Amino acid sequence: MNSSLVAYDDSDSDTETGKAENFNLSSSETRLASSAVSPIQFFAPGGLGTKSTYKMQTVENTASTGTNIICEGAPAYKVQANNRDLASVYPWKEYSNQAEMLSGNGSFSQKRVRQDKITTIKGIRPYIPKRLRQEKTSKVYEKKESEEQRESCAIPGEQISTEVSEFIKPYLGSKYKSTEIPRNLVFQMSKHSGPVNKVQWCPVQEWSHMLLSTSMDKTFKIWNAVDTGCCLKTYSCHSCAVRTAQWSLCGRRILSGGFDSMLHLTDVETGTQVFSSKNEFKISTLKFHPSDPNIFICGGFSPEVKAWDIRNCKVIKVYKAVVQQTLDVLFLPEGKEFLTSTDAVSRDSADRTIIAWDFDSAAKISNQIFHERYTCPSLTLHPREPAFVAQTNGNYMALFSTQRPYRINKKKRYEGHKVEGFAVGCEFSPDGTLLVTGSSEGKIFFYNYHTARIIHTLSAHNQACVSATFHPVLPSLLATCDWAGDIKIWQ
Q1: Which of 39, 249, 416, 473 ranks highest by number of CB atoms within 10 Å?
Q2: Nearest-angstrom CA–CA distance, 183 and 193
Q3: CB contact at 8 A, 389 and 435
Q4: 81-115 in b/e burial notation, b at 16+ Cβ within 10 A?
């Protein structure tokens, strides 16, 4: 039986209940009175007890001969009295039909064209996963920490002087003279409260009166080691021991790394952080690329060695080896290849102790360079010849070729000093005639490069001397440091 649905107005007043509603219907609509009618009640969204009155409108039904009566502006929720299909329109969706037409059997007589438009509900915040919340908070914390560090990490001291020292002026523009063995103590500087790991002169000749020192007391300092022997500035941007630091090629910035796994590129004059990044491991060595000042390599307590670009603060290369720690890094001439010394040793041999890498492809060139069962805490390059020297824990220094296959020179061995597990550094003089090294006894040993014989021994420190470096301009000027925190300048 074809029956249409009739919607009527409910009113709370008793006077309106007796009034009849007249409709202008056709003759075919008179059958509605005798047929069973299933009324539909419309309730307001506020609750089922609240009834609403809506305007009636006659709509022609194309599926039957009758006419259906519907309501305009009906609310979103509809309740059908005869328990047929419950048609509900979701409040967050809008439909293109102005009226929904129902046939006598409760089905839609016309296809609806739906357009989904999601509207946000006021007062409700969208759900954010826990992982994204943690990443957001960590980024905010790192941002605040970096802003605090960028303010200044330098402890006030004397002003950094960029004027050329009167002792250095006569040697600028001339060739380096032959190196003589220093014997007299010029300055003794004892401002560090912990062991000093390394000292390095500024590579810019005009500013080479400045000396950089890194210490286990969480700081690194700049000294005027030529004129006065005073500390110019102290930088305390690390929270743990500063294991290594290096001047940039321009001499205006210092790259440092330590046991707090942080990398900092610090402006020398202002003490602000130009570049700061958290590394995944403790840092024990880092070196700038010899031809690209924006790239550096760092290694430490990890099987990986990473190449960073300071322009975008990202890792551009990763060099992986089956080792536990990288002790030192050395770039070969032109920077296309570099060497790493590791702690990978076995009982009878030490393959992978020194590994040669291709910088661009991150491929291993050779790991069969040094076969003796000693680790090499320090590597240094000869300034004029294609050779490099490796300091070993076997109390000697070995000489290698920088050309493939990096053969060891078995005829030359620089021995006589003691290392005994300390990270003792070694270095050539600027003219390449002398090789200097510290020792665990606090003595400084000078070797003749060509004959591998000891020329002179200097009793410089009471504790282990771990670094010794010649001045790049002044002949025979030497800087040394020890495990007690003292720095000495020799002439």
Answers
A1: 473
A2: 27
A3: yes
A4: eeeeeeeebeeeeeeeeeebbbbbeeeebeeeeee
For 411-454, the pLDDT digits (tens) are: 999 999 999 889 999 999 999 999 999 999 999 999 999 999 99
Compute the half-sphere exposure of residue 345: CA atoms within 13 Å on the CB side of its CA. 17
CA atoms of 90 and 160, how far apart (whole Å): 71
Q: Does an H or E element contain 134, and which?
A: helix 130-151
Beta-carbon contacts of 447 under 8 Å, excluding residues fewer than 6 positions away, are 397, 414, 434, 435, 436, 437, 453, 454, 455
Average pLDDT over residues 354-362: 92
Q: Cα angle vertex 288, ends 282, 291, to 5°? A: 155
What confidence score (pLDDT) does residue 297 get? 94
Q: Which two tokens stand for residue 45?
A: 């969204």
Q: What are the φ/ψ torsions at residue 135 (nearest 5 degrees)?
A: -65, -40
What share of the chain has pLDDT > 70, as a percent? 68
Cβ proximity of 196 and 485 under 8 Å:
yes
Tell me the average pLDDT across 21-32.
Answer: 42
The model carries a pTM of 0.68
Over residues 187-205, the pLDDT tens digits come to: 999 888 889 999 999 999 9
Angle 277-285-330 from CA coordinates, rounded to 5°: 125
Q: Do 321 and 352 touch, CB atoms closer than 8 A?
A: yes
Q: Is 399 exposed, middle or buried (0-12, 13-18, 19+ CB in 10 A)?
A: buried
